[in-house]
Amino acid sequence: MAESLTTRMPVASLAPVRRRRRVSVRFVVLHVVMIAGALIMFFPFYWTLVTSLSPGAGLGVTPEVVPTDPSLAAYQQLFTERPFAQVVLNSILLAAITTIVQLFTSATAAYAFSRLAFRGRTAVFGVYLATMMIPLQVLIVPLFAELKAFGLIDTYLGALLPTFASAFGIFLLRQAMNQVPFELDEAATLDGAGHFRIFWTIMLPNIRPAIATLVVFAFMGSWNSFLWPLVVLRSPELQTLPIALAGLQGQYTTQWDIVMAGSVVSIIPMLALYLFAQKYVIQGVANSGIK
Prior knowledge:
Pfam families: BPD_transp_1. It is a single chain. The protein is an all-alpha fold and 291 residues long. It folds into two domains: 1-52; 73-287, MetI-like (MetI-like fold), CATH 1.10.3720. Helix content is 75%, strand content 0%. The protein has 13 helices and no strands. α2 (73-81) crosses α13 (256-287), α7 (167-178) packs antiparallel against α10 and α12 runs antiparallel to α13 (256-287). It is flat.
């Protein structure tokens, strides 16, 4: 009996060791897969940057993985031969205005759908959401005819007007506001607060993550918009970045370093906005009154 116990004890004591080994192996495999996936997704961006720093890339010259003689000649040529600085400024201006106006319209409409009781609220919200199923290609002709009647073709206002309201933004912020406890509204009402004060001091601070998400989506949608600016903007000095990038592929067909330099310029603002908004998303979650 004693011998059997002594023979079983080492086996029992090895069980936690084997369990830890299985956990550690699973941990290593999971991290290897995640790192491999991250490298696969990061490589196209890295190759774009390397190509933009490799002079003559595309003319029978394959860029090296680590460029031995990097140069900013492609960027210099891009900004000297074309009004690329004005193009970037146009895109930033349009994207910033679109984002600000969409935040205002989406937040106020979302508050109305979430907190104001009026007849037909659910039906109106459903009809408004149904507009998300209509593609832009269907609306191009009527929008163009309407703006032409008002004389807004080839103007910044003509490019901006169709982007001022966003059904997705209203839906996103309404869902976030629905998560805010109604007890906060009631407590503020007892203190004499009106709708504007409740909206500004209670709702907006508690939906910061949703607001930061909408900022990223609104800016990215305007920044990457190609079809509508291509239709409504005719003058070269009013062009946006996606249209200018398409022109680069036509003018510098064999000079991929210049084309990739334009791509890098188009990526930098979105990357900076993402890093900026990511901090506020985390801060909004930490400071939120919702547990």
